[in-house]
């Protein structure tokens, strides 16, 4: 199976960036340490593992009004943000700019990069019923539920999901798997930028 990444993308030095990846039917997690440049951490992982597909939880485009697209007048939100109730790329500023730069870099290496939103995949698996993002014990419950949902031969150790960032990276990876299988949804307008789940 080709290597794919699901990335929960955090601020540059926070230590909140986590990569979930599949290798030999096993799901592994790599986490950036605090005060380590998250973009360099991701770039190093891409150089090492050479994934064919990356799904990243970060806005990778700006509202269409900034490109002069006809019919787009919202300066704050893209159509995809409105449809998914996601944060504005304008509010996320530097994080969005960093994500776009990484996308361009990886696409120049012939790696397909898509924007995703883990909360929507969490909804698909009804993780709210298990306490999604509410407590440490809920993290364990959500991890065990996802372990039951992921089909063989794929496997992972639920104890590896140490934080909600790990779980969101796994959800991003699950969106990438859905995309590969053709069982995915898109939000937004392709001219402006879409979110894939």
What does this structure look like?
The mean pLDDT is 95. The protein contains 6 helices and 7 strands, in the order E-E-E-H-E-H-H-E-H-H-H-E-E. Helix 4 (118-124) packs across helix 6. It has helices at residues 38-49, 79-84, 89-107, 118-124, 136-149, 164-181, and strands at 4-8, 18-23, 26-31, 53-57, 112-115, 186-189, 193-196. The chain is of the alpha/beta class and 197 residues long.
Question: What is this structure's SSE topology?
Answer:
Blueprint: E1 4-8, E2 18-23, E3 26-31, H1 38-49, E4 53-57, H2 79-84, H3 89-107, E5 112-115, H4 118-124, H5 136-149, H6 164-181, E6 186-189, E7 193-196
Helix pairs in contact: 4-6
User: Proportion of β residues?
Assistant: 15-25%
When the domains are counted, the total is: 1
Cα gyration radius (Å): 16 Å
CATH class: Alpha Beta
What's the β-strand tally? 7
Note the run of SSEs as H and E: EEEHEHHEHHHEE
Structural class by secondary-structure content: alpha/beta
Give the CATH topology: Nucleotidyltransferase, domain 5
Mean pLDDT: 95
Helix content: 25-40%
Uncertain runs with pLDDT below 50, 5 residues or more? Answer: none
| Molecular shape | globular
Identify the CATH architecture.
Answer: 2-Layer Sandwich
How is the biggest beta sheet arranged?
5 strands, mixed
Q: What distance lies between the first and last C-alpha atoms, to the nearest angstrom?
A: 21 Å
Widest beta sheet: strand line-up: 3-2-1-4-5
Q: What is the helix tally?
A: 6
């Amino acid at each position: 199976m080709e290597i794919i990444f699901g990335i929960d993308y955090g601020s540059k030095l926070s230590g909140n960036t986590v990569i979930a990846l599949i290798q030999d039917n096993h799901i592994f997690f790599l986490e950036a340490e605090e005060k380590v440049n998250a973009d360099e951490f991701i770039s190093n992982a891409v150089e090492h593992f050479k994934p064919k597909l990356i799904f990243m939880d970060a806005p990778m485009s700006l509202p269409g009004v900034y490109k002069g697209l006809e019919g787009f007048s919202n300066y704050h939100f893209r159509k995809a943000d409105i449809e998914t109730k996601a944060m504005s790329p304008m509010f996320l500023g530097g994080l969005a700019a960093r994500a776009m730069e990484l996308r361009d870099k990886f696409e120049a290496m012939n790696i397909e990069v898509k924007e995703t939103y883990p909360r929507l995949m969490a909804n698909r698996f009804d993780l709210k019923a298990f306490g999604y993002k509410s407590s440490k014990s809920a993290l364990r419950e959500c991890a065990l539920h996802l372990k039951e949902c992921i089909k063989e031969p794929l496997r992972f150790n639920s104890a590896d999901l140490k934080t909600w960032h790990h779980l969101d990276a796994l959800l991003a990876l699950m969106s990438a798997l859905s995309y590969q299988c053709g069982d995915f949804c898109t939000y937004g307008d392709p001219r402006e930028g879409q979110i894939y789940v």
